[in-house]
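Handout, section B. The chain below has 240 residues.
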Amino acid sequence: MNKPATHPADDTATKSEVAVPVETEAVTKQDTTEAERVTEAQETSAAAEAADEADETVEAEADAGEADDAQAAEGKGKARVSWTRVLVYAVLPALALLLAAGAGYLKWRDASVRDAQVARVESVHAATDNTVALLSYRPDTVEKDLGAARDRLTGTFRDSYTALTHDVVIPGAKQKQISATATVPAAASVSANPDHAVVLVFVNQTIIVGSDAPTSTASSVRVTLDKIGGRWLISGFDPV
């Protein structure tokens, strides 16, 4: 039985047909590798771009933070300037005004205290002298003595004293030869200011009627004085 003849051309064709898939697979692998490289390159580029964007974001945030810090610093500076202006234009003048007012008050207070002390001394001295003048007289000079005493008085008390001496004391002293001598062993200020004062006066009065023996009495009087025309005049004379 005869075997079919094998032709070289057929073998070649067969080999060619077999080789085609090998070449195709190689091309496919090569394309896949290049695609992977492209993908990796794209991913690398994307990562780089993302990193750049992140850096830009960080830089932007840093710039924003610096701007905020600058604004805060500027705000603090303005606040310091504002408080400085308030201190210079409001607090210090007010403090100076208070100090001036305090100094003025202390000066006024000191002057008032000194004036009151002067009034106290002067009024006690005036009350002592005036009381002695009011209650002392001699029968031969009674009009002159009590007339001079009247000049030490003021107000309604002056009118009352004038009437009493004119109607009672002067005629009695002349008729009965009455003499009176007053002394003030002590006097104390009750109150005093530059225009008005009250003094408590302790009085001893010795009276002689004609040739009789002297008689002495002791009493205390609340003397009220007003300063008129630079003089302390008695405006009240009340036994206590």
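Note. The helical segments are 8-134, 142-150, 155-176. Compare this with the example in section A.
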